[in-house]
Amino acid sequence: MSRAEEHFQIALQQAESFTIALEQAEIRRFHAVMLIDRAAPGDREKAETLLGGALETYALSTGIDTLRSNSPLIEGSGRSRCKLNERSR
Fold it and tell me: Which of 23, 47, 49, 64 is deepest in the core (most CB within 10 A)?
């Protein structure tokens, strides 16, 4: 695990202790962006999982699909259907 991934794991653990779920979604989203930028083997799949979790949290917390509506990189919604589109490659 890289130092960046360790940083995000610690941040997510801390955010999970907060009562504001949007913090967890933001950390998952930022972590996914780091993985997309790094583009190591397996990073794309991890990013899709993280973004799916973020989408689910945004939808549950706000009642709207904030991340999907603001990102040209993501297709679908929900943890199982989140896929990065071709523009994210």
Answer: 47
